[in-house]
Amino acid sequence: MEELNKTKSLADRLEVYLEEEFNMLDSGIVATPTEAYLESFSKANQGSNDFLLMQLAKNFGYKLALLNIQDEIEDIKTGK
Question: What is the pLDDT, as a whole number, of residue 47?
Answer without folding.
Answer: 65
